[in-house]
Design goal:
The chain has a single domain, classed as Alpha-Beta Barrel (TIM Barrel). By secondary structure, the chain is of the alpha/beta class. It has eight helices and ten strands. Helices cover about 40% and strands about 20% of the residues. Strands 1-2-3-4-5-6-9 form a seven-stranded parallel barrel, surrounded by six helices.
């Protein structure tokens, strides 16, 4: 069995340092790099691409809403055309920075509120998939397992990659518990490791109310801004490998 371990990185900008990318990226097999709208800037993007390249980590664009103040976690009433345009813009920016270092993007994973909206809203999901396909139809599109995001990816001829989260709590319908609710982010290491193993080996995640939710996934996310993210990711990867899983980026 095979599973990818991805993380959201490159989210520092200007004078503000967010996350510990130098410690986290070597543990990952896929890196979702912020593209300057919700976080990141050209210099951070360049340095993050270089770090991922150095460690043989697959590079992906992590486009979000143009909302530095809210870190892209606030829903914005953008039109489908606006979504398509700013997603294409962000993918193009990172693709250029990657090309300057002799590497290509492997995937796209929307960030924050944009990710959650696309999971439930087919119109937004289609706008994102159109943007990805228009820039590079060979790019994989990461989305919440069982969501509208993956359906849209398939409609637009993209390789859809189902994702689940080791460090987030779920509702019984398979959606993520909003960050505004207590317990939405799981910080207990043992719980995170158990959830990762259940996702990768059994293809199931247990909702906050105890309901088992099927999770057809190829990649597991550990957030770069979760407290102790690097140590947590290292424990998750070690546990996955000890369980007999090959930890590798999606083919």
């Amino acid at each position: 069995m095979r599973i990818d371990l991805n993380g959201d990185v490159g989210e520092s900008f200007g004078a503000y340092e967010i996350g510990i990318d130098k410690a986290l990226i070597p543990i990952l097999t896929s890196a979702n790099i912020a593209c300057g709208f919700h976080a990141g800037d050209p210099g951070v993007m360049r340095a993050t691409v270089a770090l991922a390249r150095e460690h043989g980590v697959a590079i992906g664009a992590h486009p979000g809403f143009p909302d530095l103040v809210g870190f892209g976690r606030r829903e914005i009433k953008a039109t489908p055309r606006e979504v398509e345009d700013f997603v294409a813009y962000q993918i193009g920016a990172l693709a250029a920075i990657a090309a300057a270092q002799g590497v290509r993007l492997a995937h796209v994973k929307p960030h924050g509120a944009l990710y959650n909206m696309a999971a439930r809203d087919a119109v937004i999901a289609d706008a994102i998939a159109r943007a990805v396909a228009s820039v590079d139809a060979s790019l994989k599109l990461f989305g919440l397992a069982g969501s509208q995001s993956l359906e849209a990816a398939r409609r637009h001829g993209l390789r859809a990659v189902g994702e689940a989260f080791a460090d987030r709590a779920y509702r019984r319908d398979g959606s993520l518990m909003p960050r505004s609710e207590p317990g939405a982010v799981i910080e207990d290491e043992e719980t995170v490791v158990r959830q990762a193993i259940a996702i990768a080996r059994d293809r199931v995640v247990t909702a906050a109310d105890g309901t088992p939710v099927p999770a057809d996934v190829e990649t597991i996310c550990v957030h770069g801004d979760t407290p102790g993210a690097a140590l947590l990711a290292a424990r998750v990867r070690a546990a996955l490998e000890e369980a007999g899983l090959e930890v590798k980026a999606p083919a």
